[in-house]
Amino acid sequence: MNALEVMRFALRGLTANKMRSALTTLGILIGVAAVILLVAVGEGTSRTIQENIQRLGSNTLTVMQSLSGNGRGGGAGGAGGGAFAAQAPQGTGTGPRTQAKDLSLDDARALADTANAPSVRSVSPVVTAQAQTVTYEGASHTVGQLVGTYPSYFEASNKPVAKGSYFFNDDVLSARKVVVIGHTVAEELFGAVDPVGKQIGVAGVPFTVVGVLKESGSAGFQDADDVAVAPLPAVQQSLTGFGPLGQIIVQAKDAASVDAAQAEITAVLNERHGITGTAAADYRILNQAALQETVATATGTFTVLLGAVAAISLLVGGIGITNIMLVTVTERTREIGIRKAIGAPRGAILGQFLAEATMLSLVGGVLGVLIAVIGASFTIAGFKPVIVPGSIVLALGVSVAIGLFFGSYPANRAAKLRPIEALRHE
Amino acid sequence: MTAVIQDTAPVLDVRAVTKTYGTGDTTVRALRGVSLTVRRGDYVAIMGASGSGKSTLMNILGCLDVPTRGSYLVDGTDIGALDERQLAILRNRKIGFVFQSFNLIPRMSALANVELPLAYGGVGAAVRRRRALAALGQVGLSDRVHHEPNELSGGQQQRVAIARALVTAPSLLLADEPTGNLDTHSTADVLRIMDGLSADGRTIVLITHEVDVAAHAKRVVRLVDGEVVEDRRQAEVDDLPPRHHQDGPRYAGAEPRHFGDEPGYPEGAAR
What we know:
The complex is a heterodimer. Chain A is an alpha+beta fold. Chain A has helices at residues 3-15, 18-55, 105-112, 152-156, 169-173, 183-190, 232-240, 258-273, 288-331, 333-341, 346-375, 389-416, 419-424; strands at 60-65, 120-136, 139-149, 161-164, 178-181, 199-202, 205-213, 227-231, 247-252, 283-287. Mean pLDDT of chain A is 81; it is low at 69-95. Chain B has helices spanning 54-61, 84-93, 110-121, 125-138, 154-166, 184-199, 211-214, 256-259; strands at 12-21, 28-38, 43-47, 69-74, 77-78, 95-98, 172-176, 203-208, 219-224, 227-233.
């Protein structure tokens, strides 16, 4: 009895009951496909979110006002960053604060001083006006975010221009009413018409469009293309008034100096806002890199959770194998008796039934991988699944292990049957 | 007449074997001290009514069951001293079993059924096929080798079963009511094959309750209530069986003396 022979016997046993074998295989198939596919969905989700975060700009720190010692505040108009506001490296103290200072343009200027903050490359003060109505020749659209800022904002927040140009420091100094609009806004207002050079009304105030931002194609939470960016003083004059800044976006010199920049910002602002010792800060700094790490951990947990749920279905499939193999052993007790009577050793019987169980699970596993690979080419719940090669190897390995493990009990039972009793079985 | 070399030890040596089922009030004493010695080349019919213990004896002889007391030797080997693995090898090599209900494995061709004991014995595929075809030829089924059991008549199925029992060239052929489920014509076929095998020197022990069938044997042992009550010899061990017709029809292609001596078992192929 060599291995090939055992396989042949097993195959014959399986094909004798095609429907039953197919259904049992289906259990494993679903389990394996679920594991691979759900892990792929988790991975795809994680990657999409990471990309979204990266799109917010690299090496940037967002300084926001913090209204209380903890929790979120001041960042309501954050350039997308507010959606993930989970980082509060500063101001986690719980004590009440006697005097909270707003973020001011002077704060921004102080941060831009290379003597105080050598790791900082650019500083962009930002005010945000939510839901402003813009009009153009009868067409009207409500812009999700109208941002008033400095030209450095475009680079810091990773918003390149596709058509036209940015506005310049000159425009800021003279508070010119020019605007760079997002892709969505351009489409809503102008359709096929080239918007550059056209005049639009923003809450009644006329602005000239100088450029259109490149489509960022963000998926998920909010449309990153539904924005308009104008010089800071122009927005303050016509829309928000000269109140506090919504946030200050600071770009560090490079990835390595992000942490240094954060320390410098903290030092400068603490001094300017008179925060000493244990007093809670009235601002907080959102660190892009730290945020990314947190999100990675969160989505990792999410993926593990999905995998665990899928693993349960794989387990159920395995129990299905045990069940069907037990039925098979009972049904074929007489056959086992005959085989033993003509001299089949225990190992041969054990091998045959183990091989049957393993074949069931392996075929199910291979088909499951196939289905998962096909399924992963579709977009699921807005995310493109990314198959993790490790999950395929794991799922296949586990399916073989399941065959061996869940098949061993029935196979052992078959091998242990006493020939005389097996032969009497009807 | 015997082609097989005579050993000093008898093929079968049953010594005061008893078998009881159950305990207490429900105890059934199926065998009450049976002793029986069968020499090589003998053709023994064990007769008895239903419940006389003949099937129990048969199962013990076939190493499918163990006696409650007493010992049992096959070719001088004490069965009681063997472990399960050794028993499987012994069943495979020394004993050929023919059942009343044929007991072929369904959905396997006649050829595959006959090859099965050789497969378990570790014989290579080519040798296995040749020997299985020879055995099927010997029982006159050369034209039915690829049929599955449900495509064969009862008589044909029993002949496949005999071929399966013979293919390993066992020391002993055990037949448990081999004609019990067969019509007259098929019974004659099977008995003719048995007679032929006996004439060729094969040792046969056959269980039956039919006098007609027992008349074919060289020796008749009668069992009543688990005890041997009669042991009658109808022909000498070295003679031909009483009903054997030398000139009677023999199946073509039967060369039994050769296929039994073929090599094929690998050394130490006990698995």
